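User: Sequence recovery, please. Input:
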C-alpha cells in the first residue's frame, strides 16, 4: 500500500481512536512533519505523552489520548496563508473564536495559528483541531 499523505493518515488515526474511546493510539508510518504537528497538539493539551518506538522499519509513535478532541483533520489542499488572512481561515475551519487551533507550517517551524499571529508570520495550513 502506498501512503500518499502521512500527516493525514496520522490525524485520521487519532480521530478514529478518539471516537472509539481509546486511551492511546499507535501511529505508523511517521515523518518529521507528523512529529512536529503532534508536538503542537501536545503543547495545547489535546494529546498527552508522545513516545517514539524504533522498530527498524521507520519507527512509530505511541500517543496518549486525553479525550479532549472533538474533531481533527487535515486541511487539503495545503493552502498558503498570510498572517493577515489567518482570521478568515479560523472562521472557515474552527467552530468559534478561542476554540481550537489551526496548525501552520512556517519558516520558523510548525506552530499554531495563535503563535503565527503573535510572530506575524504566514505559512501553509496543515490541520485543524478542536
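Assistant: Recovered sequence (130 residues):
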Amino acid at each position: 500500500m502506498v501512503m500518499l499523505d502521512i500527516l493525514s493518515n496520522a490525524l485520521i488515526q487519532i480521530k478514529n481512536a478518539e471516537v472509539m474511546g481509546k486511551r492511546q493510539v499507535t501511529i505508523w508510518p511517521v515523518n518529521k512533519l507528523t512529529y512536529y504537528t503532534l508536538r503542537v497538539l501536545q503543547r495545547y493539551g489535546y494529546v498527552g505523552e508522545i513516545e517514539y518506538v524504533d522498530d527498524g522499519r521507520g519507527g512509530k509513535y505511541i500517543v496518549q489520548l486525553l479525550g479532549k478532541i472533538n474533531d481533527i483533520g487535515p486541511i487539503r489542499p495545503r493552502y498558503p496563508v498570510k498572517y493577515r488572512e489567518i482570521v478568515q481561515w479560523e472562521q472557515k475551519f474552527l467552530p468559534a473564536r478561542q476554540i481550537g487551533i489551526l496548525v501552520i507550517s512556517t519558516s520558523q517551524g510548525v506552530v499554531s495559528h495563535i503563535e503565527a499571529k503573535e510572530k506575524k508570520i504566514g505559512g501553509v495550513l496543515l490541520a485543524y483541531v478542536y
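The chain has four helices and eight strands.
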